[in-house]
């Protein structure tokens, strides 16, 4: 390990330590998920019950922190004397960062808009998409639901109309809201200071490419050494990039911290 790698490794471990307070909030019975009865989030929840905005956002942050905690556990090994064992994986740790970015971004995307109807629409659009995904899983498992897909979706349409969206457009809106992770990550990046849409998108795409085992991800995100060449084919040795892992972790933690910040802001009562 060279000097730059040692520096980045120390920065990586120090950066993960920053999230320990958030880890305790989601990993223990802190009660910090509770919101003020007169807060904007309480109003959001009333419009989306039983698919509360606050529940979905806190769940996303909890899942994001679980991925970050697993990343730290995968990195830090045994302490032997004054030597700490650290394990750098080529692909698997990027899978954890991908999950952290996606879930942190989902919370920011839901909580970021200043107007209630947009927050409510996004929460219900996510649930609308989940009903279709859940239906496909039930079909594969041969476990039908007690209500049809159409009935479950109509309930969401009715909630959106009751929240103030034009009733004749509610169904179309829930079908067309861009609730894809590409859109979610890009907007969350825009809503996160010191990050931006392009950087957030690049980090998420790079981690996704490694998670999928895509060649371009392997060649662009990892350290490489050409061992030999034969015509147009090169034999390459790839190793985990500490620098890449560090900067992707920075991006993930920025999004997650922004999610917690927004949750706190939206959960405080009107003054």
Summarize the structure.
68% of the residues lie in helices and 9% in strands. The protein is mainly α and 271 residues long.
Molecular structure report:
- The protein is mainly alpha-helical and 271 residues long.
- It has 12 helices and 4 strands.
- A two-stranded antiparallel sheet has the order 1-2. Strands 3-4 form a two-stranded antiparallel sheet.
- It is globular and about 65 Å long.
- It starts with a helix and ends with a helix.
What structural keywords apply?
271 residues; single chain; two-stranded antiparallel ribbon; mainly alpha; 68% helix
Strand order of the largest sheet: 1-2
Major beta sheet summary? 2 strands, antiparallel
Q: Rg, please?
A: 21 Å
Number of helices: 12
**So what's the oligomer here?**
single chain
- Average per-residue pLDDT, rounded, comes to 90
The count of DSSP E runs of length 2 or more, i.e. the number of strands, is 4
Cα shape: globular
Cα end-to-end separation: 54 Å
What level of helicity do the residues show?
55-70%
Beta-strand portion reads 5-15%
Order of helices and strands: HHHHEEHHHHHHHEEH
- Coarse structural class: mainly alpha
Ranges where pLDDT stays below 50 over 5 or more residues in a row are none
């Amino acid at each position: 390990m060279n000097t730059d790698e040692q520096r980045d490794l120390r920065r990586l471990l120090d950066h993960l330590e920053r999230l320990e307070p958030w880890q305790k909030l989601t990993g223990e019975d802190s009660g910090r998920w509770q919101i003020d009865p007169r807060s904007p989030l309480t109003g959001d929840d009333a419009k989306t019950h039983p698919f509360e905005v606050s529940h979905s956002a806190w769940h996303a942050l909890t899942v994001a922190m679980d991925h970050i905690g697993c990343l730290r556990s995968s990195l830090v090994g045994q302490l032997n004397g004054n030597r700490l064992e650290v394990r750098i994986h080529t692909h698997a740790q990027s899978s954890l960062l991908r999950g952290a970015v996606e879930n942190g971004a989902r919370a920011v995307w839901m909580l970021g808009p200043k107007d209630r109807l947009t927050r409510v629409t996004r929460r219900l659009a996510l649930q609308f998409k989940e009903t279709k995904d859940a239906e496909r899983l039930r079909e594969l498992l041969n476990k039908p639901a007690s209500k049809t897909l159409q009935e479950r979706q109509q309930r969401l349409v009715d909630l959106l109309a009751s929240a103030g969206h034009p009733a004749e457009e509610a169904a179309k809106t829930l079908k067309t809201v861009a609730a894809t992770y590409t859109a979610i990550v890009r907007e969350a990046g825009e809503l996160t200071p010191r990050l931006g849409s392009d950087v957030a998108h690049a980090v998420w795409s790079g981690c996704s490419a490694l998670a999928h085992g895509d060649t371009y991800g392997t060649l662009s995100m990892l350290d490489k050494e050409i061992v030999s060449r034969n015509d147009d084919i090169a034999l390459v040795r790839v190793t985990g990039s500490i620098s890449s892992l560090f900067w992707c972790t920075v991006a993930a933690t920025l999004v997650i911290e922004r999610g917690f910040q927004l949750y706190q802001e939206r959960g405080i009562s009107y003054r």
